[in-house]
Structures are given as structure tokens and as C-alpha cells.
Amino acid sequence: MKLHTKLTLFNTLSKLVIVVLFVMLIPLLTRKINQSFIDNRLLKQKDKVMQVIDSLGIRYYMPDDSSYGSYTMLKEEYIALDRYSSPVQLDTIANERRMVERDTIEYRILSHTFKAGNKDYLLEIGKSVSTIGETSSPLQSIALQVLLGMVLLTIVADFSYANYILQPLDRIIRAKLLGKRFPLVGTYPRIKTSTYDFKYLDESIHEMISHIEQAFQKEREFISNASHELMTPVSILQNKIENLFDREDITDDVQMQLIAMQKTLNRLKSIAQTLLLISQIENDQFIREDTIQVEEILKEVYEEIAIRMQDKNLGFTLDVPPDTKLVNVNRFLLFNLFFNLVNNAIKYNVPNGAIRITGSMVHGKFQLAFTDTGKGIPAEQIPLIFDRFKKFRQSSPQESFGLGLPIVKSIAGFHNILIKVESETGKGTTFTLTFPSELLPA
Amino acid sequence: MLTTDTTTMNVLIVEDERSLAREVETFLKKLFYTCEIAFTGNEASEKIAVNLYDFILLDLGLPDYDGLDLLSEAKKHNPEAACIILTARGSIQDRVKGLDLGADDYLPKPFSLLELQSRMQAIARRKFDLHSPLIALGEFSLDLTRRILSHHGTEITTITRKEFDLVSYLVLHKNRTLTRMQLNEHIWGSLITDDYDSNYIDAHIKNIRKKLGVFGNTDWLETVRGVGYRIRIGQG
């Protein structure tokens, strides 16, 4: 789940919990508020009655010493005065039931005892509480609706704000991490954000990238320098052997030794040259501005390599739309890429096997599949076949040093070509190249 | 143009790696070229300003001089000279720049001396207008300029580009045994693969003999047991 979805979801849930809690608390709250309101009123009324009694005497209410009582029309309120004989003095407010003209009604009742003219009296003022409960349930539903509306509004607001505030993260990932190939060319503008955390992330990524970049740079320089430094002595040795070979006074035996030396030297030379090529590709030292006709270049590859197929009596099928062109590529490199793939297909093929190259447009992209009828590659080895100096398929009759597929990988990477490997042991392997749409003519 | 005779051509070898320069000199002297060596850029600069050369073999990676500057100087003082760039710093940019500045060819180190020789001959044919006559190979004749192999005037069309290259390389180095490695390097040289022992020269030679055998005798194409191949011309 996306971070901003998670944040919004959490916000929504927490708000909903609060709303539900609040709505559930409404009856309790209204009762509390009402009660304190009623109590206040009762106290005021008591004060008023006591004032009247103080100034006009108890006779005002009780002219003949019999009890006094009065209530409002709907019996919502009543007031009662009576003689009181218990020694316990009262001054309380409590909920009690009273019979008023055959109706039993729950009242909030203030009871107050006082002395007037040496006699004890009890004053009761009551107010009906039955109406209080009636108000709380409509209040609950209104509050629920209003609050849910508000929650909905905040969800929208939260979602868009979360979206907005998390945008730099997306930008950082897209600009700094996705689809980055080393070496990186050009500079990296800082992502604009006022969020400290993202700045921190951006800076950390920068730091990491520059470390990686340095490590890559060092490796490339090392390979490049090492290969160059190797080339000079190899060059001297090669020419010395050639000149020696040409001398009249050497015996057949020495001649054989010289040939053996030449072979060994050739091996050293090949490795150095291949490493140099890979480092040059990875150093972006090639120009991508050639336009090639795919079928034509594959025919050339075939011509170059036909002798090797003949050696194993392999069948060859080339099925590429004749007008397919690739632009912005390096011809030399693509030739080497195709050559190495076909060479690979020959090397690991069985005698009398076959090789097929098929080109097709798939979802607007050009795909080129190299299929062989060879031994196949066990699934667990497929991720490793592009590693330098890895040799798995030992039964190969030719000697090689395991740089054929690394060359393929470097060249493909240089052109943003995707390589897919499918293999079935004993049946064969298919290498599928997917060319990005920018390599197709507009 | 100084001369049209290959045997008296003047070559300046500009190479700071002394033993390499000596090997190139030894090889070219055997082919009757007249050689001078400059071990430093300054030395080369002086020689270029004073003397006239037919060939300047130029190492770009000189410690005291920018090889490309030297190339410009050569073009100025020795406009007729053919310049071949020899370099271990074989970056593509250098190559493009070098050829832009008028170098005639470019040979990355390490190179075979035979390859150097064939490049020099190719340039000589092109630049000094040395029309090589038809070369007779038994009943066959080879036209290096037009790249045609024919039998009694009939062009042999079955021969592939690679096979022609192989024959002409052997002809260029006639009467000399070329090892499989040397032939291999010539015809597969620009390809970078990971086989160091792949050798299809024998298969190529077999094909050539089969294709030409239909027309006539191919005894001139000799197998030297355990070593390689040789084309014999003019010595019976």
C-alpha cells in the first residue's frame, strides 16, 4: 500500500473512532449539562422562595399552617411547603419520583429545611427530567451526520495534502534511483522540498551515488590502464616472436615452440582486448549515431561466422522483416553483440543442430530472438551467465575465457537493450533482445 | 611523391618504446624499407621538419608530445607522407581525431608486423598509385586492386570475401609461411570474442581448395605441416 494511502487511512480510522466515541458520549453529556442547568434553576427558585418568606413571613404561603403546593400546567415543575418534624436538616438535590394527581413523574427535586417562627419547614422544588432524554437522541443523529461530513472533508484534504507532501519522495526515486545506469553522466539537481526528511534522503542518496560512482570510476580506470599497460609488452613480444619466426637459422623444434608462444600470447591479448572493450563501453567512449539495417548486418554476421556453423553442420534461419532499421546505435558494437550471440549459439549447439534468428515488433518495440538447439542452461545458472570470467558449460569444445556474454551485456546496456534468457536443458536456449523505441526510426 | 618503388621508401618510426621500435625497424629493413627511428616527440618533430618520408608510423602516446600535434606537423612538412597511427591508447576519440587530421590508417597495439606491412602496401597502392599488376597463381590470376580472382580470364564468383582476404594476405606475404594465428588475426582481427583458440583457417583453406579445384590446380597454396600456410610465387 502506498504511504499516502496508509496515512489517509489511518487518519480516517482515528477520526471515525473519535466521532463514534463522541456520539456515544452525547446522552451522558447532555444529561450532565441539563442537570447542572436544572440544579442552577432550582437553587435560584429556592433563593427566591426564601427571600419571599424572609420578607413576608411563612404566612404568605401557609396562611393556616396547612401545607402548600403548586405545579405548572403540564406538571413539569412543582413547589411544595410543609411542616417538618425530623431533626435531620436537609439541603439536597436528587432525582426522585412523585405522584402528582395519579401520574408518577420523575423529578429533579431540591429539598431544603428551614426554621421560621420556631417551627421547622421543608421546601421542595421539583422539575421534571423526562424531557431530557428526548432531546439527546436527535442531537446524537445530527452530531453524527455533521461529524461524518467533516470527516469526509478531512479525508479529501488529508489525501491531497499527503499526496502533495510526499511528492518529493516520488521525484527523488524517479530522478535519482530509477533506471540509473553507471556511469552516470551529467549533474544531479537537488530535489526542491521544504521537508527536512526528504532533503536528508536526497542528500544521502547523492552521497551514496557519488561513492558508487567513484568505485565504478576506479574500477574502469584500473581495467583501462591495466589493459593499456599490458598492450605494450604484448606488442613487443608479438613482434619479437614474428621476427624470430622469420629467421633462417631456427630449427623446426624452435618454430613449434614459437607457435605455442604465439598462441599463449594471443590468449593474453584477447583477454586484455576484451576487458579494454568492456571498459571503453562502460566509459561511454563509443558514439551512438549509426543507422543499421538489421537484416543486412545479421547477414554480414552470418557471412563472418558461416565457417563455424559449417564445422558443426548447423542449420541457419534468418527471419527478420527486411526493412527493419535501428537508429542511434554503434554499428561496430552491435555487430559484436550479434556476433557473440550467434557464436555462443554455435559453441553450445549440438552437431547437426540449428540456429534461428527471428525479428518481430512486439508492443511497438523491436524484438530479436536468437534460438539454438543446444544443451541449454540450468535455471539456477541463468542469472550468472553474464558475469565476467564465469564458465559454466565446461563441455564446450572451444577454449574461451567467459567474456563473450559480458560483452553482450555491456553492449546491450550501452544501447538500453533488454536481454531475456529462456532455456530448457537438453532442448536449447533463446536470447531475446528488446530494443527500446528510441532506437527505432521515427 | 618521393618514389614509386616500394623497396626504397623512407619510413619514420615514432615510438617511445625502444624495443618495439627496434622490432618494427628489423622487420621493415628486411623488406628493404629505409628506416629512421625517433624515440621522442621532439626528435620526431625535428626529423619531420627536415626530412621527407613516404611513411610515418606514429605512436600517439608519447610522453613528451601530443601525438595529434605531431600528426599536424607531419601533414604540414610532409604532405605526401602516409601516416599510420599506432597506439595502445586505442580510444575511439583518438581514432576519429586521427583520421580527421589526415592519418591514412590506424593500427591498434598490439598489431602483427605482417598486418602493418599489408596496410602499408594497401596505402602505397592507393596513395602512390602503385597499380599492382595481375599476380599469377598457377592457372589463376589475382587482381588486388579490383579484388578479383580469375581462372584464364573467368572471374571466380563462388569465393567469399573472407576467402579472398585470406588468399590476398598470403599473396602479399608470398613465399613466407604464415601461421594460423597470423591468418586468424588478419581475418578476424576487428572482432572481439571470448575464444582465444578458435581457429577456422583450416576450414577456410579447405573451402578455397574445393572451390578453386573445380577450375584448376591449386598446388601453389601449400600447407606447411604443423605451422601454417604459404603461397609460392615465382620460385617453381
Automatic annotation (TrEMBL), chain A:
Top-level class of the enzyme under EC nomenclature = transferase
Pinpoint the Histidine kinase domain residues. 225-439
The cross-references to CDD domains, in alphabetical order and at most eight, read: HATPase (cd00075), HisKA (cd00082)
Q: Which GO terms describe its biological process?
A: cellular response to phosphate starvation
Query: May I have one GO cellular component term?
Result: plasma membrane
TM regions (residue ranges): 12-30
EC number(s) on file: 2.7.13.3
Molecular-function annotations in GO: phosphoprotein phosphatase activity; phosphorelay sensor kinase activity
Q: Report the InterPro entries cross-referenced here.
A: BphY/WalK/GraS-like, HATPase_C_sf, HATPase_dom, His_kinase_dom, HisK_dim/P_dom, HisK_dim/P_sf, Sig_transdc_His_kin-like_C
Q: Which reaction(s) does its UniProt entry say it catalyses?
A: ATP + protein L-histidine = ADP + protein N-phospho-L-histidine
In terms of SMART domains, this protein maps to: HATPase_c (SM00387), HisKA (SM00388)
| Protein name listed in UniProt | histidine kinase
Q: Which organism is it from?
A: Hufsiella ginkgonis
Lineage here is: Bacteria, Pseudomonadati, Bacteroidota, Sphingobacteriia, Sphingobacteriales
